[in-house]
Specification:
Layout (H helix, E strand, L loop, with lengths): L2 H33 L8 H20 L5 H4 L4 H14 L6 H20 L9 H8 L2 H23 L5 H31 L8 H27 L2 H23 L8 H23 L38 H8 L7
Helix pairs in contact: 1-2, 1-4, 2-12, 4-5, 4-11, 5-11, 7-8, 8-9, 8-10, 9-12, 10-11
């Protein structure tokens, strides 16, 4: 079996687990709000959902070690599709025509992505990461990203421009750094486990690990702020599009994943991305809108009983993930109604 197929299987399985986790937590919130009993975080079922989410995110992390980032990142739409199906079948939510159309478009886009995305990438080693970090294309991209990030941060913090695109672009710029570091750490761990060469003795492994943690933390911070200001049905599709685009660009410039790929494959890959984006927009925009005043991500931030009256009935992909963005949009947005 081709190694990239293993990465696809792991990523799809991880996103499916995340969608199950979302609906388990959603069901727990619904049951708690109807019964008015103990807070949801005291429920064993809710903690089972959290455990499944952790396993799903771990799968997404591992998938980056077996397949290109430009192939793994767009698969975050699987969690959106699966969550919509589970919500209709088990939580008896209304099935809309736009859900069917969006699901069909997203599935078609996913097929094109898997078929025409780059299937091979060089093994990620410490020496390779060091070379990529000093390559001219990455340095130019990183400089451009820092400048844009500073401008957006100035508008957001100093000029108090609270537009959803501004906040989500901040998240996306951080996500590109997250994807680069996650693939580096996952790839080096994969090489170590394979036994081909021990990568944990190189300082670059720990540097990339720190970069991964810090970028994830700030990505989560801005995403939580976005969830406080805007409805989740707006954030889900925008975050998926921006995260996927940033991951693909990072894979192209840092890991040179599109090197040697024919023009027709690139065009079909872009078409697959556009179809998946459209499908996610159609699915997410029809979800019931619930405005949230507070968002909790960290497990140390236990919300009060007042925060469990409503449930956030939409689903994430994920950053999407993906990884950090999906974890925030998924676990952090469960029913905040103060």
């Amino acid at each position: 079996m081709e190694i990239y197929i293993l990465g696809i299987i792991i990523a799809v399985s991880g996103n499916f687990l995340i969608s199950i986790s979302l609906n388990i937590q959603k069901y727990t919130h619904i049951r708690q709000s109807q019964r008015g009993t103990k807070p949801y975080y005291t429920s064993r079922l809710w903690w089972c959902g959290i455990l499944l989410m952790g396993l799903g995110e771990l799968g997404n992390f591992a998938a980056y070690g077996f397949a290109p980032a430009s192939l793994i990142a767009p698969l975050g739409c699987v969690s959106v599709i699966a969550s919509a199906v589970i919500s209709v079948v088990f939580l008896k939510e209304t099935l809309r025509a736009s859900d069917l159309l969006g699901g069909a478009l997203a599935l078609t886009g996913t097929y094109l992505l898997v078929t025409f995305a780059p299937h091979s990438a060089p093994h990620v080693t410490a020496n390779m990461v060091e070379r990529c970090l000093i390559s001219w294309q990455f340095l130019a991209y990183f400089f451009f990203e820092v400048v844009v990030f500073c401008i957006l941060l100035y508008l957001y913090k100093c000029r108090n421009v609270k537009h959803i695109v501004i906040v989500m672009l901040l998240v996306a710029l951080l996500a590109s750094v997250t994807v680069i570091s996650v693939k580096a750490v996952s790839g080096m761990l994969t090489e170590t486990i394979r036994g081909s060469h021990l990568q944990l003795t190189y300082p670059i492994f720990y540097i990339m690990f720190v970069v991964m943690v810090v970028s994830c933390a700030f990505q989560i911070k801005f995403l939580n702020e976005a969830m406080k200001m805007f409805d989740a049905t707006e954030i889900v599709p925008i975050n998926y599009v921006f995260f996927t685009a940033s991951a693909v660009v990072a894979g192209i410039l840092f890991y040179e994943e599109f090197y040697g790929l024919s023009i027709i494959y690139i065009i079909m890959f872009v078409c697959g991305c556009l179809l998946a984006f459209t499908g996610v927009f159609l699915i997410a925009r029809t979800r019931p809108k619930i405005k949230m005043d507070r968002v909790f991500f960290s497990m140390g931030q236990i919300p009060s009983k007042r925060c469990t009256d409503k449930v956030q009935p939409e689903k994430k992909e994920s950053k999407h993930g993906a990884l950090a963005s999906k974890l925030v949009c998924n676990s952090g947005t469960q029913s905040e109604d103060t």
